TrEMBL record:
Belongs to the polysaccharide synthase family. It holds the Pfam family Polysacc_synt_2. Keywords: Lyase. Its EC number is 4.2.1.115. The lineage of its organism: Bacteria, Bacillati, Candidatus Dormiibacterota, Candidatus Dormibacteria, Candidatus Aeolococcales. It is an enzyme of class 4 (lyase). The gene is pseB. This is UDP-N-acetylglucosamine 4,6-dehydratase (Inverting).
């Protein structure tokens, strides 16, 4: 957390579940000069202000589509965490123009204002849905990744470093499967789309800790991917509501049976850094910078939820649920 001491941090989409938890962690474990929360919803901002009463917090109403407002927001900022996005798959499918404006053009706006203002470090949050996307949400996040990474070329002589963090389907955030299962439990039946379905699992604490570590280590241009376990949705259902009958509804449009975090095409320029995987840029701006202790993965390496080497069983899932741990963003597809 030392990288945040005395710094001013801006979090776009800061009223979301990640933004709330990230802000609490910063204020509790670091000594930032200020944390600026940038979002569109004044109600969520007022609720967050009541939950987190700290004089270092600043609340800025704004939209990542509005470049002029972003320019004002990043003035004097040292670190930007870009978490703002339209995340719900059905909403993105029904409102594609809006998804593009927020998730793609919004990411470009954030990158450009960071470069123009000389913000030293900026990191954007992405999702496994960006890997071989099967829906518009994933496609927009893939574009956002590419824009943010390649923006390092546009930085030129500016001091700005830009990187991305890509992590797995987050099972306890708004619209995801745990709240759905809990709601369905009283009816005596759970719905699951397919008995074979698997997902990656990451807790809110883990997501925040990973982003913090990436910010402290980034050199600009990296796509950081955590090493996280997989779980089977059927086992999650058993952990949430033991013994209840399950009705299978079929895979929905834009939904995958399994999720991937690294494809074989990306494996050619992916390193195993021990604590995470790092997908390096394929372009010359990377300049041969070294990641200490990192080694190349096999050329046919695939990091997918069904081929993972680490799994959570029913007992482990029950333990996490019993501990009260919430799960982190971004959740884009309800898998139950």
């Amino acid at each position: 957390m030392n990288v945040f001491d005395g710094r001013t941090i801006l979090v776009t989409g800061g009223t979301g579940s990640f933004g709330n938890h990230f802000t609490r962690a910063l204020l509790a474990h670091a000594n930032p000069a200020a944390v600026r929360i940038f979002s569109r919803d004044e109600l969520k901002q007022s609720e967050m202000a009541r939950r987190i009463d700290d004089p270092r917090l600043r609340f800025l109403i704004g939209d990542v589509r509005d470049r002029d407002r972003l320019r004002r927001a990043v003035d004097g900022v040292d670190i930007v965490v870009h978490a703002a996005a339209l995340k719900q798959v059905p909403a993105c499918e029904y409102n594609p123009f809006e998804a593009v404006r927020t998730n793609i053009l919004g990411a470009q706006n954030v990158a450009e204002v960071c470069i123009d203002a000389g913000v030293p470090r900026a990191v954007a949050l992405s999702t496994d849905k960006a890997v071989s996307p099967a829906n518009l949400y994933g496609a927009t996040k893939l574009c956002a990744e590419r824009l943010f990474i390649q923006a390092n070329v546009y930085a030129g002589a500016h001091q700005t470093l830009l990187s991305c963090v890509r992590y797995g389907n987050v099972v306890g955030s708004r619209g995801s499967v745990i709240p759905l299962f809990l709601d369905q439990a009283s009816s005596g039946e759970l719905t699951v789309t397919d008995e074979r379905m698997t997902r990656f699992w990451i807790t809110l604490d883990q997501a925040v800790a990973f982003v913090v570590e990436c910010i402290s280590r980034m050199q600009g241009g990296e796509l950081f991917i955590p090493k996280i376990p997989s779980m089977r949705v059927l086992e999650l259902a058993e952990a949430v509501a033991p013994g209840l009958p399950i009705r299978y509804t079929g895979i929905r449009p834009g939904e995958k049976l399994h999720e991937s975090l690294i494809t074989p095409e990306e494996a050619r320029h992916t390193l195993d850094a021990g604590w995470c995987y790092v997908v390096e840029p394929e372009h010359q701006f990377w300049g041969g910078r070294q990641i200490p202790g990192a080694t190349p993965v096999a050329e046919d390496f695939v990091y997918s939820s069904d081929r993972n080497t680490e799994w959570l069983d029913v007992d482990a899932l029950r333990g996490l649920l019993a501990s009260g741990q919430r799960i982190a963003e971004p959740a884009a597809i309800e898998v139950g």
